[in-house]
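FAQ

Q: What does a record look like?
A: Structure on top, sequence underneath. For example:
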């Protein structure tokens, strides 16, 4: 990689960390095979996250001046980084992959300016995603309305069943009388 490509990579990562990412997770690679890395990248893309191996020096340069600057010390040894706009997506995919594959170790990360250790990333991975949280909020908001509709419909339903039973009972006798 020549200097121009390095500058472009640093600039691209800096823009991502400044504008697009809400979460960055740093991992350590202990001999992942190419097909394993490709599988991990595919899972990350499916979940709206990215996984990138970059030289530690370039990653630290890209982090300068961003809210994630505090995680620069995590970039030592064979590291990679993951990021996502969703505050949970990258953490969830990395944690699932690391639990199944002991060649990937979670080092830490950051959720905005809040630094996370490996345990913090693991705890974050267990939280509902942004879409799941939104669905839970909508469900919580809709539940009282649904109960209210049911409450108002129930007396009418009971009355209708009573009238229907009465009509069946009396309607049956009058048809017998007519025959």
């Amino acid at each position: 990689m020549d200097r121009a490509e390095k500058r472009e990579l640093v600039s691209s990562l800096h823009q991502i960390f400044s504008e697009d990412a809400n979460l960055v997770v740093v991992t350590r690679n202990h001999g992942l095979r190419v097909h394993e890395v490709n599988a991990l990248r595919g899972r990350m893309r499916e979940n709206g996250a990215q996984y990138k191996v970059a030289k530690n020096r370039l990653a630290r340069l890209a982090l300068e001046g961003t809210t994630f600057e505090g995680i620069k010390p995590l970039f030592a040894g064979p590291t990679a980084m993951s990021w996502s706009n969703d505050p949970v997506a990258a953490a969830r995919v990395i944690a699932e992959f690391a639990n199944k594959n002991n060649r990937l170790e979670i080092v830490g990360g950051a959720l905005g300016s809040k630094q996370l250790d490996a345990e913090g990333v693991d705890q974050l991975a267990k939280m509902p995603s942004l879409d799941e949280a939104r669905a839970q909020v909508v469900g919580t908001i809709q539940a009282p309305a649904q109960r209210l509709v049911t409450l108002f419909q129930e007396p009418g339903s009971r009355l209708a069943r009573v009238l229907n039973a009465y009509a069946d009972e009396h309607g049956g006798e009058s048809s017998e009388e007519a025959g």
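Q: Is there anything notable about this one?
A: The CA atoms of residues 86 and 131 lie 9 Å apart.
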